[in-house]
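Two proteins, back to back. First:
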Amino acid sequence: MKNLQRLAQECLREADAIGIKYGHIVEIKVNTRAVGWLGITRKKADGYHIEISDMLLPDWANDIDIKSTIMHEILHTVHGCMNHGPKWKQLAEYTMRFYPYDISVKGSLEDYYTDAEIHEIMDKKSKYIFRCRKCGKMIYKNRMCDFVRHPQLYKHDDCEESDIVRIR
């Protein structure tokens, strides 16, 4: 697995070098349970906590891809940038003028893995698995939530259907 702390420190130095005034980051750590995201930033009383999914960190992964996600999350710590609004987007564009990152609003596993690899990984990591009966898309969840309790109440975004069946 890639060294997240080394890559995160490089990103922080790069942000400093171009004058990005990020917030107080308490920790940047690996999340081994994440199934629906590659990175997340949470604001708590003591500062910002960033988590990066272990799925982004295999030894063969490209450092630039990993650092793109880390920088994406660091930008969320800038005042007024917890969402993907105009200020966040402007900072992402600014950062990409200096560094070869691809800082997008939403990265996904499809950017790094084949469909077969994703299904294999998600099958091992996910506690709950659902499938849309119309298009066949698999939906993975790891925590009990309203979706897990009542999947019939939700529409699948890609095909606008609500015929979702629980597999596990």
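And the second protein:
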Amino acid sequence: MKEKGNVFSKTQTVSLVILRVLIGWHLLYEGITKLLLPNWSSAGFLSESQWVMSGIAKWIVSHDLVLSIVDIVNMWGLIAIGVSLILGLFSKPASLAGAFLLFVYFLNNAPIIGIEYSVPSEGNYLIINKTLIESAALFVLYLFPTSCNVGLDFYLKRVSIF
């Protein structure tokens, strides 16, 4: 794969594409699940925020209209980013948006010593958790895009839309 002067081996390209699709599936499924759950809201997650974003999170929860907007943007953002990554369509901006979104999640509920959440986590973490790792992986996918070679961006590039 040749991208801005970089040449990736077939194994590197396949590995990056697999990573892109796996994360895409995870985000798509999370978005669809939230969309299909009756009365789902991010209020519970935001109410648990005790770190860097806690002030903003509490403000969002205290304003019903803002919370509704955040919920809609969150659900549809996850779905759009997931579909984009799976299809390789606009995956570079989708990778960056996904990395940002997941980093915001991390800044709300990071595994920091002295912070305890009412909902137990599914593992034992100290500073680094799966959300931060997935955010970093999406940033790597932003830096090493594959969709212009393996994805719908390849076809858009061929018809000069890019």
